[in-house]
Structure prediction request, 367 residues.
Amino acid sequence: MRESKCSPFLLKRGLKLRIGIIGLPLSGKTTLFQGLVGNFFKEEEHFAEKLTIHSGNLILEDKRLRHLAQVFGSKKITFSELGILDFCFYEKKGKEYFMHSFFQEVDSFVAVVRYFEYPDLEPPNPLQDIKYIEEGLILRDREIVQKRMEKIEQEMKKGRKEGEAEYLVLRKLHQFLEDKKALRDMQLPPAEEKLFHGFKFLSQKPIFFVLNLDERMGIKEVERVKEIITPEKNNFIITSLRLEKDLLEMDECVRADFLESFGFRDSLRERFLSACLNYLGLVTFFTVKGEEARAWLIDKNTPALKAAGKIHSDIERGFIKAEVVNYKDFLNVGSSLGEARKMGVLRMEAKEYIVQDGDIIDFRFAL
Prediction:
């Protein structure tokens, strides 16, 4: 998985990362959604918009947190969660599919791409479908930029120069989009990025792909598919959603054998979560306070001060120090804080310390 080139999410306290599932008709979008969240989801009908939205939560079950809860006797375990949304339109009209405002409300996209035969559909062409989806996002952004430029032009003709700086940045964006390039790949100074932060451009959002294979393919065919896709796209996972759906009803041992026949060691949910965290640049740290052991999801390269604010703004304001031990070190010293302190792996860190995945942190602060 390659790392995202886009700006970090800077996840705010209490907010869940929302991932929107998109794709062409009959690609397997809803099958992926159900495979991730099961039957526990909400359905919202928007008749005027000719749209149904399925929303559910994907819990990031973490064996490390379970172990910490056992060691410290925590009665409550709180895992991190991702919000998953499946958009089901009554009508789809080419790239106009991406013009809907609901797409703006997600933080990232996962696009399902078909690689199996289906009656009355053209033979599968995953690279073409990927290009089509990317161009749909780009087209939508280009129209938004064009409309905004036209509005500023009208104001400038009236002698109002307030939007001149924004207009110059919009021209850069428009040219980039005209070249059919996604805004997530555009590098701009932070000051210029701030000028269009509120637009919620679709092609600026991270996107990764789920390549949905025919369940009858063997491991050799799967490897051949990887060779075709990899030079073009690194941000994808491969699966057969129909097979994965059937596996949910099988015994765990039988399930493992079927996954191995495809060359997979982990379940769809595990591979999906790994793809999300790696590609979106997210890490997890843990806290154990009172009767609760809890996992917190933050961006990579987040300093301890901002990680404290993820828990509560009071902790960020009154930050003194962070007592930190990484889970791997904690495990290596026999899951003992006393041994961790004796071996020097439990240490005090200042606000500039960059939180690492698996850190167990006790924030010291003054009210």
User: Anything to note?
Assistant: Residues 126-157 form the longest helix (32 residues).
